[in-house]
Amino acid sequence: MSQHTTPNVTEQQTHELRYLHKVMQAIQILGEQPSLSVVAYGKIWRYGDLLKTAVRYAELAELHGYDTSAFKHWFQKDMAVFARYGVAMRVS
Length: 92
Prior knowledge:
The protein is mainly alpha-helical. The chain has helices at 11-27, 47-63, 69-77, 79-84, and strands spanning 38-40, 43-45. The chain has one domain. Helix 1 packs antiparallel against helix 2 (47-63). The protein is globular.
């Protein structure tokens, strides 16, 4: 992670980004095996959870000044999959 933060980022958002980074590492297998379930951080995670978490992770990363263009490309390419799970992107 970068050492700089932008003035409009709260400490809570920074903590959430760090937590989601750990979650994404734990559930990344769902991207390759969508039919699996993963037990991590006291929850059962499924493919739809991966998509929702990825969107929130990208939103927070963008707030922190990180380049989210690779995520945006994936989202645009697989927009129908995200829509099937009711996931919308709120990053610019």
